Structure formats: C-alpha cells, structure tokens
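Summary for the lay section of the report: proteins are chains of building blocks that fold into shapes. Here we show the chain for C40 family peptidase and then a coded description of the shape we predicted for it.
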Amino acid sequence: MERTLNLTPFTLRLQRNIFFLIVIVFFLSSCGTRKYTVKSDTKASKAADAMANLRSKALYRFINEWTGVKYRFGGLDKNGIDCSGFAFLLEKEIYGVTIPRISREQANVVRRKNFDNLKEGDLVFFSFGGNDVDHVGVYLNSGFFVHASTTRGVIVDDLTLPAYQRVLVKSGSVN
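The coded shape description reads as follows.
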C-alpha cells in the first residue's frame, strides 16, 4: 500500500513562507554578529582618543560646541571665528585667563615650554607666512591640539604632522 501526501496549495504556500522566514531570520541574525573594527591608528581615532583623555570636562564640552564652526578672519562667534579669537575665548572661558586678542601678541605673553613638556591648555604658535607668528592653537594631549583652521574651521589636529612641525615657532603656558 502506497501512501501519498495530499498537499493543498495552501499547505504548499505555508511551507514555502516558513522556509523563507527561516532563511530571513538566519540572514539577519548573521548580520548582527559581524564585528566592525576601527583602526586604532587612524587620525580620527587618535583625535577622538585625545578628546576622551582630556582632564577638563569643561574643555571637552567647549571644543565639542565649537567643532566645525567655520573660519572667519576677525570673527569671535559661532558664525565664524579666527584662530586667535578661538584661543582668546577658550582661555577666558575654561581657564579664567585673559590673553591678548591677536596671535602675535598672545605669543608674547606665554612662558616658553619645550614641546615635550606641554600640558592641556598650553598654547602653540605657528608661522605659516614667514618669521612672525600668524597662527595659534591650544594643546590638548598626545600631540593633538585644537585650532580654527582657515580651511576646515574649528578642528582637533595632529601637531606631530610635518606640516605643523615645520612651522611651529613657539609653545608655552599662559600662567
């Protein structure tokens, strides 16, 4: 005696739908187990580490609030700011220190420090156009600093890059 299965169209559709459901669940669960890694040697991850390692949470908040604000020569607000204006506001708001408004004059009031002895909040000065100081940033840690870049706005950058090392002319603390 032979047995035959009498499958109705409804039963066939149900089996097919269950099969597809199992395949979809399997696929989605396998996507969830994929591990994504960020290379720890990328510039962005190192900048993020420098921010995460700030001792001053007020400094961390200040930088986050200003990151991405565009550069504007003479600017002093979130519609646009220049490098010396950014350093001026940061030093005043975070450290309660009033420094001159112009980077060249700011360089005159800092006590010179060796690059290896820089601390969070120290100022770093550059000369992109010759002998005079024409750019300033604020040192964070691990070779990173924050500044108002003429092309990228307020940004955390790597001070150890050759482009910055060639034009770094002075570094030091205000107090």
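Put simply, here is one thing we learned. The mean pLDDT is 86.
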